[in-house]
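Quick one, T. Sequence first:
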Amino acid sequence: MTELILDVRDRPRPGLCLWTAGSRLVLTQGGDPLLLAVVDRGDFGVDFHRTAAPLPLLPPLRAATAEAYADRPERWAHRFAQLLTADPDGPLHDGRWLLTSATEPQWNRHGLGPAAFWRELVVEGHPDGYIDWFIHNGSWELLPLRPLPAPGDARVKAYRKQARAGILPPVLLWWVSGLDCYVVLDGHARLAAALAEDVEPSVLILRRTVPRDERERGEAEAAADYEAELARYSALMARHGPAVPDGAEIAGGILARRLEELRTGSRPSWAWPLPGGEQAWHRIVRDLSTSTDTGLRSWAAQWGA
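Structure tokens:
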């Protein structure tokens, strides 16, 4: 398993930013709307409409690099981290982040093969679609920011060769708790190639982890609790004799688990209040539907925009 901590400073707001206005959301990049969304009234899911394709966050990944990294796939995490921290158009903002290859446990309830299982997780529909929180509750779906290319696409064909060779670079995912799913940041063609070749895609997940101040406070509390527990066992030993354990094994295990949670524990993603609230959200919808995205009108009509 690969884990890499990113400590981001001096970036109060990301270039790829999620804004909220009540049950309405808009994902922007550099101020331009990419995705409009509404949480349905029963909290069963999210209706969305893609309004534009995102700017690429990573440069093209060359076959020579994939071959060079074949024996040490963890090098992809360092490469992705370096590129993400240098790119102002990505989702990183102040705080601690984890880039990890570990995915949440997922229940393959139908016993599907790799391609069918992962294809079931991909949110379909373009430009409109629906992130399902009911049937797919706990499945952690994958929301592409652009439609996946077809299996015969030139880029997909090139990546399919790498998939067959076992050197396909990972797909970069971003955990967005407000959507309760992973957003595909980079690797749409690589994901399509893995599905076409019926192999499980390699992934790297970017998510927020425990903030610095919370970690420092938690570590101090964990150390104090550990010392207090050892002192309690010492008092018991003095009273009842050597039959009482010294408590180091029990207290040490608890301390180790607490410290690991403080190092890499998951935290909700951030969203920013949309200035102007719901009226501003509706104004964005109207402006887009009358200018560049006429197909947005019918979708927007459902939400009174």
